[in-house]
Amino acid sequence: MGLFQQLVFLLLILLALRLCHATREFSGLSDAQRELMERDIVINLEKAQQNLQKAAPAVFSDEDCKAQMSNVLGILARVETFLLQDDYAGAIQQLSIAKKILGECNTALEASHVRTLLCTFFTKSVRCQAHLSQALLYLTGQALTHVDAATNLLNSLVDKDKLKVGSTEAPCEVDGTVCQFSPCGQGKNLPVCALGFAAGVVGGANGLAYVVTNPQDDDPKIPVPGTLRYGVSLGNSDGNGVWITFAGNMTIFLQEMLWIRSMTTIDGRGFNVTITGRNLVLGGVSNVILHNLQISSVGESDTIHIYAGSKKIWVDHVSSWDARLGLVSVLQGSTDVTISNSLLTNPNFNMLLGASDADTEDKIMKVTVYRNWFKDSTQRMPHCRWGYCHVVNNLYTNWGYYAIGGRVNAKILSDNNVFVAGRRSEVTPWFSLHGPEFDTTATITSSNDLFLNGSTFHQFMGVEPMSLTEVPPAYPTPDHNPPIHSTSTLPQFLEQCAGAIFGDSLARCMFASSKV
Fold first, then answer.
1. pLDDT (tens digit, 9 = 90+) per residue, 92-138?
2. 20 is in which domain, residue-wise?
3. Structurally, how many domains does the chain consist of?
4. Is residue 39 among the annotated active site residues?
5. Are 212 and 260 members of one domain?
6. CA nearest 502: which of 11, 133, 77, 109?
């Protein structure tokens, strides 16, 4: 990211912080005091980044130091993300790492052998010393000073204003999309943000905390500590499971399918975490959260395969694409699943809920499909069999054969979605000249949907018609009903917030949310 882009990002952070704090309640500091302190933190981060940019040309011969400065720039950008989420502990930890790296770089520059190496490139040692002094000025004299200042301000915020996160008194607006990145959803409090049929999921909130530090998957049979595969092997290991986070941005190329155990959370917040090569499989498990991940290019399978009676599964803020058999599948007696806030795009199949007309065990299936962006797919967004599918507040663009379909007595409520026609106008698989073999037993009902660009919706009344008085479905409590975002602005909102969000995309989503 160039300096100009970084400055624009910092301005977005400041604006989003101001708008977000306007509706939050904190103990201790007033909103005005908090905004002033956060502004000062961001200003110091900005100055530290500027000084690192200035120091880079002077450190012309020490490649390790160049790499270290690049690493620190990335860390400072992540600090801004933590600050936006009010995760002060995470921000302080990242600044501590940045300070350590800058200190090591300074030590290297000050070492006599580095001075000698630098000066061999010049005929005049005066010029050499000038470059070295310039680098040390920006690193020691200024960048470190601003990092220290940001750290002190953050520590002051923590000392003066203890957030009531996780307590019964904590204000917590479960809005469906950005709760996951707010103080009340911070860390292992994430499950409070779950809505729909997966509401009540806990994942690994009561289990071990595990950090992925190694993106490799060289030996799936004997996974190495620090890898994602080793982390998921800890799921349900002590009866409480595992909460998996990541040490930084990483791409993980899986050599084999990754089998997720019960009581597991894979939490990619704060970073760009991409999983590729093979898919994630949930077979006969319960209480699993997959959050803020990118999953793609898995070959001859789907990207997330949920089957064999799995239950209480929450797939949230996932970006997924490029899989021959589709993206997210829920099959064979699995139920109480919510798939939300995801960006799902695939040339052909997208989401399959119930795999076969013969799988009558799917009569118990209940799935909430909420605030996803289904983009440029041909069919199955979703396709449902036997069970109940609440398809609510999603955005559909440029489907091919159909967007929403169903068979064998499935009940599907399309509720407050936005359909923007592209290749085909009809939302369902309906054709006026269909033959007698066409299955019309499903019930597909539209309620408060918005149809744009000539899109149409043929309602299927099925063999057991579903009246609007039967909807929305009976969730565990009224609090678990998904909040509805106005369909008039839903496309713009989901274009900023659907899928995995991090860095500047998180800032844009928080800003878009503040405008609601």
1. 777 777 777 777 776 666 653 445 544 554 444 555 555 556 665 66
2. 3-162
3. 2
4. no
5. yes
6. 77
